[in-house]
Amino acid sequence: MRVAIVINSSWNIYNYRLGLIKALISNNVEVVAIAPEDQYSKLLIESGCIYHSVKIENKGSNPFKDFLLIIQFYKSYRKFQPDIILQYTIKPNIFGTLAATMAGIPVINNVSGLGTVFLHGNFISYIAKRLYKFAFKFPAKIFFQNNDDLELFVEQGLVIKSKTGLLPGSGVDIKKFFPAVTLKRNKVFTFLMVARLLYDKGVIEYIEAIRLLKNRGIKARFQLLGSIDETVGLGIEKKKIQEWEAEKLVEYYPFTDNLLEYYHKADCVVLPSYREGTPKTLLEAGACGIPMIASNVPGCKEVVVNNKNGFLCKVKDPLDLATKMEEMIGLSEGDYTKMAISAREHILVNFDENIVKNIYLTTINSILSRKDEILRG
User: Residue 115's pLDDT is what?
Assistant: First the structure.
C-alpha cells in the first residue's frame, strides 16, 4: 500500500505527522511526503519517506496560481499513484482534493484549524468558504480537531456531517514530552508563550498583560518563543519584538526543535489565541506536566480544563489574562502540584498521539475496503 501525505511545508509534516508516518511504515505502508522543500525535507527521507517537492504559496489567493497548483498536485498524484491521500492545511485540502478527484484517488482531509480566513470576515474569507464548499463534496473523510469547527462547517453548509470525524489534534508523543525530574517552581515564577508570532495568537494581549503585572509590582519572568512571520497584517514585526526586549517586558527566543528544554524551565505556559484547531504547544506543555493559561476558545478549551490543569481567560482581554497569571503565581504549593499532575493526566487520557495513529489506520483500511464505491460517489 502507498499513502501520500500532503501539507504546506516539510517542517509541518516532520513536526506534526512523524508519529503517523512511523506507524504507517511499521505497517508496511510506503509513505510519500509531498510538500515544499525546506531543511526538514531531508529528514523526511531519513525517516523512510519518499519525498516529492511542490511549490505552495501559503498566503493569498491568485486564481491563475491556484489553477497551476491543481495541475501540480494532479501530476504528482499521477506520478506516485498512492492508494489514498492524506491532506492538511487549506490549499492541499481544497486544490489537492480537486486534483485527487481528477486522478481517481480517495482522500482524507484534516481541518487542523480555521486559520485567519475564518477569523476575519472579508472577501478572502468568502472565497475560501465557497472553495471549501465545492471541494469538500469529494473527500472520503474530513477530520476536524474540535467539535466547534466541525459544527461550524456543517451549519454553514460547507460539509456533510456524515463525512466528518473528530481527532484530538495531531496528538503528542508522550515519551518525547515528559515532566521534569523534580516538580518544583522556579524562585522567580516563569511564564512561557510558544507560538508563531502572529496577532491572532494573542501575542499583543500577552505583552499587555505583562505590562499590567509589572505595573502591579509582580516579580516574574516572561518568555516568548516562536518564529517571526512579518506577513502584512498578520505577523508581528521583528522591530516590535526588539522594542519589547529593550523595555525588558519579555525575553524572546527564536523557534527551536529543542522545546523540551524551555518547557522544563517554565512554570506556566500561556496561549491567549483567538481560535485554534488543537494547539500543539498546549499538548506539549500538558505532557510535560506544566499548568497552562489559554483563551476560552475552540481548540484551547478542550486542552485546558479550567481550575483543573490551568485557567481559561477571556479572549482578547489582557486584563483578565493578567488576573489569571497573577492567580497562577499565587497558587499554594499543593494546588500548583495538583494542577501540574492533572495537566499530564489529561494529555495521557485524551491526546496521546497513539489515539490519532489508530484512528487514521482504521479509517484508511475502511476507505480502501470500499474504494470503488467511494469513487463512484
Answer: 66
Cβ burial, residue 347 (10 Å; 0-12/13-18/19+): buried
Give the pLDDT mean for 17-39: 96
Three cell numbers written together for 342: 492533572
Based on C-alpha coordinates, what's the Rg of the chain? 21
- Right CATH number for 2-171+353-375 from 2.30.29.220, 3.40.50.2000, 3.30.1490.110, 3.20.20.210? 3.40.50.2000
In this predicted structure, the answer to whether residue 231 has a pLDDT above a threshold of 70 is no
Q: Which of 108, 106, 112, 104 is nearest to 87 (CA)?
A: 108
| Helix 318-329 and helix 203-215, axial crossing angle in degrees, nearest 10 | 60
Q: Rounded to two decimals, what is the model's pTM?
A: 0.93
The CA distances from residue 321 to 142, 182, 279, 318, in Å, are: 34, 27, 18, 5
Report pLDDT digits (tens) over 136-191: 999 999 999 999 999 999 999 999 999 999 999 999 999 999 999 888 899 999 99
Report how far residue 199's alpha carbon sits from residue 187's, in angstroms, rounded to the nearest whole number: 31
Sequence-distant (6+) residues with CB within 8 A of 283 are 169, 170, 171, 172, 177, 303, 347, 351
CATH of domain 190-350: 3.40.50.2000
